[in-house]
Design goal:
The protein is mainly alpha-helical and 144 residues long. It has helices spanning 2-25, 37-55, 57-60, 69-81, 86-109, 115-128. The protein has a domain at 86-128. Residues 20-25 have low confidence and may be disordered.
Length: 144
């Protein structure tokens, strides 16, 4: 039992020493909109896994020769937080398109449900609302 506790304490101390250094060393992944936050979290997590595997010789030394986890995570993490996150923009465009198509139909045939187009527009607007006010270039007003 004492050996198990000492192993646990050693792992805890190792984690306290390695994780902050690995997190501090990684590039910051900042989401551009609120809806892209999950992609930024996943991208940062993938990057952290690669940094940890690379920093812990007891793991990296056991990997098969030629398997470079760090190189793979360095490719996957930015793609997850970048191009994969663009699916949010495509979703917002699609929801906005649905609102545009529904507006004349509901106005003509179901005026009691005309509020639905406003709901779709608000969802589309929320998906592309900026993460921070510090945006370079021209002012971004997705719902203006």
């Amino acid at each position: 039992m004492k050996k198990l506790i000492s192993i646990g304490v050693a792992l805890a101390l190792l984690t306290m020493a390695v994780v902050p250094g690995a997190v501090a060393a990684q590039d910051e992944i900042v989401p551009t909109t609120f809806a892209k936050i999950p992609f930024a979290i996943i991208g940062s997590g993938i990057q952290l896994v690669g940094d940890l595997v690379d920093a812990l010789p007891m793991i990296s030394d056991q990997l098969p020769e030629g398997l470079d986890i760090k190189a793979a995570t360095d490719l996957i993490a930015p793609w997850t937080a970048g191009p994969l996150a663009w699916t949010v923009d495509m979703l917002a465009w699609g929801v906005g398109l649905v609102a545009d198509v529904m507006d004349p139909v509901l106005t003509e045939f179901a005026p009691d449900f005309a509020w639905a187009t406003e709901l779709f527009d608000k969802v589309a607007c929320g998906l592309v609302s900026p993460w921070s006010d510090n945006i370079t270039g021209s002012e971004f007003t997705p719902c203006g």
